[in-house]
């Protein structure tokens, strides 16, 4: 009996060690696969961040101008934890969100209408192209003169810049709908409203989402400029205020926060597009 126990225990330990080796092998394989998929996409970004950290800590660049990343993240976390940046985030999201919502509500219906009625598009296209090529920042002083140095002018300049990407993308999406699909629907007796709901609108959705993603990015870009003039709240104001007071880590932290907000908005729109357009998978 003792001999059998002595023979069984080594086999049991062997099976345990074999199971551990199998688990380690699976984990190693998973890590190799994760690295193989992440490095081609994020390797250059990680290298840039590592270079920033090393060059600042080693004194290759002036750390007063380019602080180490850990100092920037520490300043950002401190101001988030004590609530100093929370009000700024809220007011910035309110400004950009309001302008973006107005751009969507006006741009998409107008784009769908102009894309279908060619006479209206030909009549409005020259003035749209003129306004589109005019920088919203160049018009900001005009908006301030007309609307005052308050919330209205800030929201309007963001709206002005975000309107054109979604409007033009919607027009382009409608014009690129395959005419054979429309003719086929008419052959089967579909009316104009049915063709619009079942053919034109679904086929235009991918292009519309491209415009939405461009508009969301533009809204955050214009937000900074709008909040740098005549504002006392907002992330853009914090960027300028930190620069004036030489709080460079906080300045970079606010810039990093804006980048995170932009990435979050883009990821949300990509997720929504994937749910609505399962036949068209966008690249984030």
The unreliable regions are 1-5
Q: CATH H level of the largest domain: which superfamily?
A: MetI-like
**What CATH first level of the largest domain would be assigned?**
Mainly Alpha
Shape: flat
CATH arch. level architecture of the largest domain: Orthogonal Bundle
Report the order of strands and helices: HHHHHHHHHH
Number of domains: 2
DSSP helix count? Answer: 10
Largest sheet: none
Could you characterize the architecture of this molecule?
The protein has 284 residues and is mainly alpha-helical. It has two domains: 1-63; 69-276, MetI-like (MetI-like fold, Orthogonal Bundle). Helices cover 83% and strands 0% of the residues. The chain contains ten helices and no strands. The protein has helices at 2-57, 69-81, 86-116, 118-133, 136-147, 151-175, 179-187, 192-227, 235-244, 248-276. Helix 6 runs antiparallel to helix 8. The longest helix is centred in the first third of the chain and has 56 residues, at 2-57. The radius of gyration is 27 Å and the shape is flat. The model is unreliable at 1-5 (pLDDT under 50). This is Sulfonate transport system permease protein. Residues 89-273 form the ABC transmembrane type-1 domain.
Can you lay out the helices and strands and say which pair or pack?
Layout: H1 2-57, H2 69-81, H3 86-116, H4 118-133, H5 136-147, H6 151-175, H7 179-187, H8 192-227, H9 235-244, H10 248-276
Helix pairs in contact: 2-10, 3-4, 3-6, 3-8, 3-9, 5-6, 6-8, 7-8, 8-9, 8-10, 9-10
């Amino acid at each position: 009996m003792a001999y059998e126990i002595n023979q069984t225990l080594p086999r049991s330990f062997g099976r345990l060690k074999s199971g551990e080796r199998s688990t380690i092998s699976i984990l190693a394989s998973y890590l190799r696969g994760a690295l193989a998929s992440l490095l081609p996409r994020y390797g250059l970004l990680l290298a840039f961040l590592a270079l920033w950290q090393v060059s600042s800590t080693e004194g290759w660049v002036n750390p007063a101008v380019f602080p180490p990343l850990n100092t920037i993240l520490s300043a950002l976390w401190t101001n988030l934890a004590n609530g100093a940046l929370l009000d700024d985030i809220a007011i910035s999201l309110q400004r950009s969100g309001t302008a973006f919502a107005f751009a969507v509500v006006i741009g998409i219906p107008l784009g769908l209408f102009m894309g279908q009625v060619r006479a209206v598009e030909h009549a409005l296209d020259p003035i749209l192209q003129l306004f589109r090529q005019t920088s919203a920042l160049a018009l900001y002083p005009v908006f301030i003169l007309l609307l005052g140095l308050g919330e209205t002018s800030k929201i309007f300049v963001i709206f002005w810049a975000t309107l054109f990407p979604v409007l033009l993308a919607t027009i382009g999406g409608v014009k690129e709908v395959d005419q054979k699909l429309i003719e086929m629907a008419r052959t089967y007796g579909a009316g104009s409203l049915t063709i619009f709901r079942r053919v034109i609108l679904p086929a235009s959705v991918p292009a519309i989402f491209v415009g939405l993603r461009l508009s969301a990015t533009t809204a955050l870009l214009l937000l900074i400029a709008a909040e740098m003039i005549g504002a006392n709240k907002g992330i853009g104001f914090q960027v300028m205020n930190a620069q004036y007071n030489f709080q460079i880590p906080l300045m970079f932290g606010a810039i990093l926060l804006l980048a995170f907000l932009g990435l979050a908005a883009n990821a949300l729109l990509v997720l929504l597009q994937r749910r609505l357009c399962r036949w068209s998978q966008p690249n984030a």
